[in-house]
Design brief:
Blueprint: H1 12-47, H2 50-90, H3 108-120, H4 122-159, H5 167-207, H6 212-221, H7 233-254
Helix pairs in contact: 1-2, 3-4, 4-5, 5-6, 5-7
């Protein structure tokens, strides 16, 4: 398999790998289940003998069990591969074209509405997919900020127990990190609420058969300038990593 490019965009290699992973489990189930009995049946047909026919029949359930185990293993690796692709795609923000990779993060209602729009109102479906991407980005921003905030809180708790002259400086740095992460979490929650409001507006427009022009005008009123959620979390993570490295070195120097 070709090495997947380390970018935040979907590549041709990703699509080829997706087709392979989608086909491999079921192809493996069929081949592994049927191949041994078929081969043994051919041998029995060519050379005769009841034992070979009995062996061919007996091999069917054994082959099926082995095939099930292999299919489960392939599905596990496929899921892990898909999670890795999703993480890479989300690193620079989820786009409308990438929504299909994140369908497991959509609600049942959102999946149903999107499917109906794609069949009946393609233009509204495009707006709906774009807004779903905004919601997923906002939810990811808020979730990551919340997780990082918990880590910072733990570092602050540990820093308070350090008996060193530079502890005050360390705590001040961590407090600034906490303030920044709280702002990111609040911004993520705000953007998620805004995206959910847009989704409801699009659903309402679709249910009453509103035209694309009317729907687009309504969406513009919900602040069109916020179409692309500013996902500065990755940059902030790098800055946070630098701070953590500096703090780690500081703790090593302060350690007795």
């Amino acid at each position: 398999m070709e090495q997947i490019e380390k970018t935040g965009k979907l590549t041709a290699a990703d699509r080829r790998a997706q087709r392979m992973w989608n086909t491999a489990p079921w192809l493996g189930l069929t081949l592994i289940t049927l191949l041994p009995p078929v081969v043994l049946s051919l041998i029995a047909l060519l050379f005769g003998g009841a034992p070979l026919w009995l062996l061919a029949i007996a091999s069917l359930p054994v082959s099926f069990v082995i095939a099930i185990v292999i299919v489960i293993t392939l599905l596990f690796f496929r899921r892990r591969w898909a999670n890795g692709v999703r993480e890479r795609l989300a690193s620079d923000g989820i786009t409308a074209d990438e929504i299909d990779w994140f369908r497991d993060q959509l609600t049942k209602s959102e999946k149903r509405v999107l499917r109906e729009m794609e069949e009946q109102q393609p233009l509204l479906a495009d707006a709906y997919r774009e807004t779903l991407a905004l919601r997923l980005n906002a939810a990811r921003l808020s979730s990551n900020a919340r997780r990082e905030l918990l880590l910072v809180e733990r570092r602050i708790s540990r820093a308070r127990y350090l008996n060193a002259p530079d502890t005050k400086v360390l705590i001040e740095e961590l407090n600034r990190d906490r303030t920044r992460l709280e702002q990111l979490r609040h911004e993520g929650s705000s953007r998620r609420a805004e995206a959910e409001a847009r989704l409801q507006m699009i659903e309402a427009a679709a249910s009453r058969g509103a035209s694309w022009t009317e729907t687009n005008f309504m969406l513009q009123r919900l602040d069109e300038g916020r179409k692309n959620v500013p996902l500065g979390l990755e940059t902030e993570r790098e800055r946070q990593q630098l701070r953590e490295d500096a703090q780690r070195e500081l703790r090593k120097e302060l350690a007795p």
